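Section handout, structural biology tutorial.
Before the tutorial, make sure you can parse a SMILES string by hand: atoms, branches in parentheses, ring closures as digits. In the record below the ligand is pyridoxal-5'-phosphate, and the chain has 874 residues. In the tutorial you will relate the predicted structure tokens back to the input. Do not try to memorize them.
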Amino acid sequence: MTGMKAIRRFTVRTVVPAQISALTKLATNLRWSWHLPTRTLFESLNPQLWEKSRRNPLAMLAALSREQLQALAQDPDVVSRVAAAESSLDTYLCEPRWYQSLGAEAPACIAYFSPEFGITEVLPQYSGGLGILAGDHLKSASDLGVPLIGVGLLYQAGYFKQSLSRDAWQQESYPLLDPDSLPLTLLREEDGTPALVTLPLPNNRVLHAHIWRADVGRVPLLLLDSNVAANDDAARGVTDRLYGGGGDHRLTQELLLGMGGVKALRTYARLTGTAAPEVFHTNEGHAGFLGIERVRELMDPAITEQPLSWGEALAAGRASTVFTTHTPVPAGIDRFPRSMIEHFFAGALAPGVPVSEILALGAENYDGGDPAVFNMAVMGLRLAQRANGVAKLHGVVSRGMFSGLWPGFEQQDVPIISVTNGVHVPTWVDPQLAALAKERFGAEVLDGPDWSKVYDVSDEEVWALRRRLRSALVDDARARLRSSWKKRGAADAQLAWTDSALDPDVLTIGFARRVPTYKRLTLMLRDPARLKALLLHPEHPIQIIIAGKSHPADDAGKKMIQDLVQFTDDPEVRHRIIFLPNYDIAMARTLFPGCDVWLNNPLRPLEACGTSGMKAAINGSLNLSVMDGWWDEMYDGENGWAIPTANTGAGETERDDIEAAALYELLETQVAPRFYGEVVASAAGAAGASQPHQGALPARWISMIKHTLANLGPAVSADRMVAEYVQRLYQPAAVAGRLARANNYAVTKELAAWTERVRPAWSEVHVEHVDSHGLGDEPQIGESLQVRAHVNLGQLDPNDVHVSVVYGTVDDADDLAQTRSQRLETVQDHGMGRYQFSADLLIDRSGDFGYSVQILPTHGALANPAELGLIRTA
Ligand SMILES: *Cc1c(COP(=O)(O)O)cnc(C)c1O
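Predicted structure of the complex:
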């Protein structure tokens, strides 16, 4: 070795002999990452090379010598297996699936934007949950036949690799990826030159990017890459790292993702002849500038024959845009200085689009907002007619968090719905569990919504499988532990102990996630003596496997990792609690199935959804979690345990103390005894702690496993999630988008003109007074009440508004609850903008009753009455 580092690496692709040339196609379509038969085929070609090339089919093909390839091509068995795999892929790619049974309302194409995509460890373009979710979204869309196109960035180094220093401080390294060795295809013009996306930057600079395509089953994923010769050095570095740098660098990434992403879609449609997207879905705010690019297109006479005004273009773009918010943690939201946005848009980035309007989209012009800041989530909400959070509780939290954008509205009426996240089952179910299901019940069990067949599997078989999964994890963890210690400077001679770290028969608890403070990695260390006692319990020991990366700039997170690792370094406990560096998809796939219990203890309600617990559940692990995210809606008392949350009034330290104590208590009195339960009762003392499972099985534990699989399996599946997105968001957005475009944007123009008329006139709208008649002194159920509202609409007309009575129960403070509403229909014109609206209200509930009157603007092209953020109440 010279010590000199290559500045660029490239890979020469192998020419695969004709008889088995389909291997290249099989290696290039990422379906292999979740399709076990394809993986098995590659593995069988050369098991050693398969491991050596880190289970990456393309790398393995490149590593096979010409002679080896020739030998495979001469083997009739290999040739026929390759042909069978190819035909399975071809069928998968074009047969009708669920989506093809939907009607004509279903969009012809949906574009899905995300800053990260976690599909396989071979393509490390993700940092955590957001990216894994995006990957699972694409995979389930593919399985369901949803015509989706993913759009993202190709980071040269992806996210960092994590290791530890001797004193347990996180070390980051950024190995460069070579696109040519990845399962990617460069998008080219007809003349063979690479297709190029260009984005004008300030100071007459231009940002160019290539477009790589990854095939995720049926779903193409377009990844923009700024590392091209035409760029200056700074522009080349735009896609250097995932979430690298801050300020300008980050903003340029997001401009490329959003605006460049739309341009890439246009280029892709032109070159492949595929349908243009009818719906644009942005996974978090990072890609929000896609809305600006679409407005720009609609305002540009070179693109749109009769260009639209700002207001019209905005209305048209919003109609077909869906925004998903992913975090209730303010630090998780991108915010830029307003001046920076102004600087970038002052030039040729979006000619014709008023910069003041762009700035207004991201303005925090509500209580507690910062006037100097441009907020990407706020822009995302204003650019999308439909928005959602990612779990029921997160929907509630988001409606509160963003309620400033809908002043005057009750939080429950803020137009943000929720679609609970899910996980792609074929990716995350362990092959051994999948094999068992297939052998017993046929393949469809785990693909379908009925998992109750698990009740037909004997306790013995379930328990034996759990032990195999736990053992596989123990083996993998030992190897990783040894390699981590070697990187920390230990010599082999000092590491014999790692071969017996962990025990395949001890209750195994997993905890792995990114390490922002709210996830409280070190909550378990709150009372170290108590934790130690749990780990070393003579009859009910537990062992804990922990992993997680801290953001490179987050020293508080790194300190938490250090504290934890230093605890695990103690020779007294190091065989029972370990930290594994470099959490990634590859580790996760062994970790989730191998753990008996999956622990999650975030600060409620800061975990938007969380998906690792779902991945554990579909492998028969039980969750032990704070009632946050998905667990808040899916915990049912039989599928795991809920860690109680301290009163939010408690201070931070006090909260941690209370919740940690509750966690220890649960482990000690519920979880561990149940895991070892029956055995300890019958064989205490005799069997001892080292072999707690000889003989009897923990029947209650196994019944919890079966219950978990049967009930959570279908509920946490990403197929359920994607189907919900299609039905509740994509279809309505496509319909609204078509209506907006019809007859040369007739409805759009009408809506924009109406909005421009209603907005300024709204300040005059008010309820003058309300009276009611018809009830006696002691109102009874079944009587009706005539409600009359005298309102002043100023310049507006009764057709512009929806006047309704909102009624329900009242408490001592006169607050309405359990409200319902009824429109006041009958109208009398009193002149000068004054009208009387009335209706009869049937009293159908007993108890304290109250009502109020509200006025909302109404128009057929609005998706929600709260959309304009205008309301007037009595
Ligand atoms: C599932 C997963 C995550 C996200 O887990 P959360 O529970 O949402 O924190 C992060 N990283 C990897 C590798 C995963 O597999």
